[in-house]
Write a structure and sequence with these properties.
By secondary structure, the chain is mainly β. The chain has one helix at residues 16-40; strands spanning 71-72, 75-76, 79-87, 95-103, 106-114, 122-129, 132-138, 140-142, 145-153, 161-167, 176-182. It is elongated and about 125 Å long. It comes from Candidatus Curtissbacteria bacterium RIFCSPHIGHO2_12_FULL_38_9b.
Length: 183
């Protein structure tokens, strides 16, 4: 049998509480140091750069810059012009806006038009300089909303006139003039 009178009920527990208190103290000190360090050590102070590099879109194409163009630290200065159109066919029912930007070897043309729905025909955009007329492309759209977007090398900036024609055949000759304009 066991002698219950000689039992020692004052058994010392392991010093886990001291380790636990040290761990808590370490966490508190680190929690206090971290925000203070972030406040005093701003980005760029330890050789870090504040510039964020991102991947460029995949459909970008390089351009050749003419060294005679005005280039500043922010890029190439593009000249932007808008065209005013006159309806020569439908008595004011047709209208369009065109803008072009060029410089640095690049030419950008944007044409938006409200035109009657052509039946089995196409609308085409032409650029004009004096007696010289060149076809650009057929317009895209349906019903009465039509548009054209062109991005090319700068070979069109000396053309100051623009036509929209109704074409029955796909050839190099302008047919029925709808709108005529100039930049």
């Amino acid at each position: 049998m066991r002698d219950l009178a000689n039992q020692n009920f004052n058994i010392k527990k392991p010093k886990a509480t001291a380790k636990f208190l040290r761990l808590i103290l370490l966490i508190v000190v680190l929690a206090a140091i971290f925000p203070i360090g972030k406040f005093f050590l701003k980005p760029g102070s330890l050789g870090e750069s504040s510039i964020v590099l991102r991947e460029a879109p995949r459909n970008l194409k390089p351009i050749n810059v003419d060294l005679t163009e005005s280039i500043n630290s922010e890029g190439v200065n593009l000249i932007t012009q808008s065209a005013t159109f006159k309806d020569v066919q439908y008595g004011g029912e047709a209208n369009a806006t065109a803008t072009r930007s060029f410089g640095g070897g690049t030419y950008i043309l944007s044409v938006d038009a409200t035109l009657p729905d052509p039946v089995n025909t196409n609308y085409q955009v032409w650029l004009v300089s004096g007696q010289e007329v060149i076809p650009i492309n057929f317009m895209n759209g349906s019903k009465n909303t039509w548009s054209l977007r062109l991005r090319s090398s700068d070979k069109y900036s000396n053309y100051d006139g623009i036509w929209i024609t109704l074409e029955r055949t796909k050839d190099e000759l302008p047919e029925e003039h709808i709108l005529e304009g100039s930049f």
